[in-house]
């Protein structure tokens, strides 16, 4: 390809429903494959950046799922036609979500396009997704995604350079002439920038010493499962090459277009292989990550499960184990609203500022940008810090290994000590996936009608001999302390006098039907309860929630699809 390239304008047709959810636009691959569908959405993203687009640099990459490369090739052509100066592309179209965030920040780009449906399955009959991250490296906030959506509803055409073809499998930098001006394409190593960042944040030699053991201490054995998602190459580089972990302990570490048929969601159900291997094997530590690498699950010896809410709290209490925080200090902690409240107690004890935000990582960004937030997390296996503006699975596993190296204890002992100091928040989430939308709406309406009744506060809800008195109930809304924007209808909450909480939300990441999420959180300070099974402790509250919502009646579901 040589000489001058020219853009053309393609008349298009409008597609309904290009509304980004909790994290980008997620639909079946077949939906994205429709003529103009992907092009429309990409053009809308670019138009939403308005006058900042001309002369800018953008990043693109994704989790390697089916349709990713085709989407990259389309994006190259559309970006070139819209007056962008430079496009940075992960080799083979591969970049984890945290890596995109890191690259946006490092090279000060206008933003990045992330090609992923995250933890949703991949392949020709599964899901694809497109997400836009802004110049702070974080997921576009609501005002930007609303703008993108509004543009998709009126879009008449898009611009494209049909002849522009680039080999994205080869690391290279090329400058071409497009419409009489320079357009540069840089295909970069997918892992290098991210690995450099991790080495600045963590003490790799301390972690390596832990993993390799010494004369008086056995090696600390880890098993890392990438679920055939994007983290494979990052894991091989960091855990394999840098930290010396044997490749036999780094499993499913090659990104596959269909994740090898796995559901790349690191929880007890979908990462059961990891759980079983750690339960029956010699391992001290197990970690799994989701398709795009922003989620993590951490388990200890014999598959001792660390709930994400506890994981956040333990890291909060031990941040001084990590060199990055020794340098920056600890500015604040935050969690999403449904996340178990364990970190609240660490914040209260240490006097560090604390925030509760709606579900979705985009709500943490403003607080981080304002220098008020260092560490945050979500119950959905998301943990991260202000080193970037996305949650970060590999970061979380390195953070845990740093804490373990510092404390010299097993994961189980670290958790038990934590509960002894702070008490224990028991947490569970029930997911009812792929319900009929109408039925799911009925469940939500049932709860909303009840909690709106004037005398609902003070109501006693009972299960066997347990009595819960309603202290407060609402449809959660949030006012951002930085820009004062208000976000409403973020989940139905029932707060009880003893501090327990029950929350109902509809998922915003599915591609069809509706997923109902029921979150239950309660606090115990009595040490004799700490060893109990969370399901047993929370059973009365779960039942109260099921009766109140008539969930089983409305949906016909006797049991959830996934229990966390
Ligand atoms: C889910 C999680 C939420 C998370 C989001 C994106 O959203 O509950 O906490 O931020 O996924 O994660 P929802 O609307 O389905 O509950 V990821 O790793 O899929 O980008
Ligand atoms: Co993800």
From TrEMBL:
Keyword Chloroplast appears in the UniProt entry: no
EC number of this enzyme: 5.4.2.2
InterPro entries in the cross-refs: A-D-PHexomutase_a/b/a-I (IPR005844), A-D-PHexomutase_a/b/a-I/II/III (IPR016055), A-D-PHexomutase_a/b/a-II (IPR005845), A-D-PHexomutase_a/b/a-III (IPR005846), A-D-PHexomutase_C_sf (IPR036900), A-D-PHexomutase_CS (IPR016066), Alpha-D-phosphohexomutase_SF (IPR005841), PGM (IPR045244)
Swiss-Prot/TrEMBL cofactor(s): Mg(2+)
CDD domains: PGM1
Annotated Alpha-D-phosphohexomutase alpha/beta/alpha domain residues: 18-154, 193-300, 310-422
Record flagged with keyword Zinc: no
Any one Gene Ontology molecular-function term assigned to this protein's record: magnesium ion binding
Protein family according to the UniProt entry: Belongs to the phosphohexose mutase family.
NCBIfam families membership: PRK07564.1-1 (NF005737)
Name assigned to this protein: phosphoglucomutase (alpha-D-glucose-1,6-bisphosphate-dependent)
Gene that encodes the chain: LOC107268941
């Amino acid at each position: 390809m040589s000489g001058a390239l020219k853009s053309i304008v393609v008349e298009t047709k409008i597609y309904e429903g290009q509304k980004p959810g909790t994290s980008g636009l997620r639909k079946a691959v077949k939906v994205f494959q429709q003529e103009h569908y992907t092009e429309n959405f990409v053009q809308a993203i670019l138009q939403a950046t308005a006058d900042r687009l001309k002369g800018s640099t953008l990043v693109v990459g994704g989790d390697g799922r089916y349709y990713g490369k085709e989407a990259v090739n389309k994006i190259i052509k559309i970006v070139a036609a819209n007056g962008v100066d430079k496009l940075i592309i992960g080799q083979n179209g591969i970049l984890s979500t945290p890596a995109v965030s890191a690259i946006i920040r490092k090279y000060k780009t206008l933003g990045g396009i992330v090609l992923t449906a995250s933890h949703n399955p991949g392949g020709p009959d599964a899901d694809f997704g497109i997400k836009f991250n802004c110049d702070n490296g974080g997921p576009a906030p609501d005002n930007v995604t609303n703008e993108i959506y509004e543009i998709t509803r009126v879009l008449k055409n898009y611009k494209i350079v049909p002849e522009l073809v680039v080999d994205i499998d080869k690391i290279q930098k090329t400058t071409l002439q497009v419409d009489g001006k320079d357009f540069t394409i840089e295909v970069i190593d997918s892992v290098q920038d991210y690995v450099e960042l991790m080495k600045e944040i963590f003490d790799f030699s301390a972690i390596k010493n832990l993993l390799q053991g010494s004369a008086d201490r056995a090696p600390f054995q880890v098993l890392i499962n990438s679920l055939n998602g994007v983290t494979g190459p990052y894991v091989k580089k960091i855990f394999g090459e840098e930290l010396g972990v044997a490749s036999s302990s780094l499993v499913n570490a090659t990104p596959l277009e269909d994740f090898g048929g796995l559901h790349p969601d690191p929880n007890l159900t979908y990462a059961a292989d990891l759980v079983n291997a750690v339960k029956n094997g010699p391992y001290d530590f197990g970690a799994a990550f989701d398709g795009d690498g922003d989620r993590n699950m951490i388990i200890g010896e014999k598959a001792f499960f660390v709930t994400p809410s506890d994981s956040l709290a333990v890291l909060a209490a031990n941040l001084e184990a990590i060199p990055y925080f020794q340098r920056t200090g600890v500015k604040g902690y935050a969690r999403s609203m449904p996340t178990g409240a364990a970190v609240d107690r660490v914040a209260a004890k240490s006097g560090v500022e604390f925030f509760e935000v709606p579900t979705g990582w985009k709500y943490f960004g403003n607080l981080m940008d304002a220098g008020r937030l260092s560490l945050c997390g979500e119950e959905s296996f998301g943990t991260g810090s202000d080193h970037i503006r996305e949650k970060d699975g590999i970061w979380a596993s390195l953070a845990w290994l740093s804490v373990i190296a510092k404390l010299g204890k097993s994961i189980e002992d670290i958790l038990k000590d934590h509960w002894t100091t702070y008490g224990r928040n028991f947490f569970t989430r029930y997911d009812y996936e792929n319900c009929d939308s109408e039925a799911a709406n009925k469940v939500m309406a049932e709860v909303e009608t009840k909690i709106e009744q004037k005398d609902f506060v003070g109501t006693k809800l009972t299960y066997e001999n347990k009595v819960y008195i309603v202290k407060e109930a609402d449809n959660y809304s949030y006012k951002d302390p930085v820009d004062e924007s208000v976000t409403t209808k973020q989940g139905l909450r029932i707060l009880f006098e003893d501090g327990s909480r029950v929350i109902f939300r509809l998922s915003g990441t599915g591609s069809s039907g509706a997923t109902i999420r029921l979150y239950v959180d309660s606090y115990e300070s009595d040490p004799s309860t700490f060893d109990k099974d969370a399901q047993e402790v929370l059973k009365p509250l779960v039942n109260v929630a099921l009766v109140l919502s008539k969930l089983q009646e409305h949906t016909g579901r006797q049991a959830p699809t996934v229990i966390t």
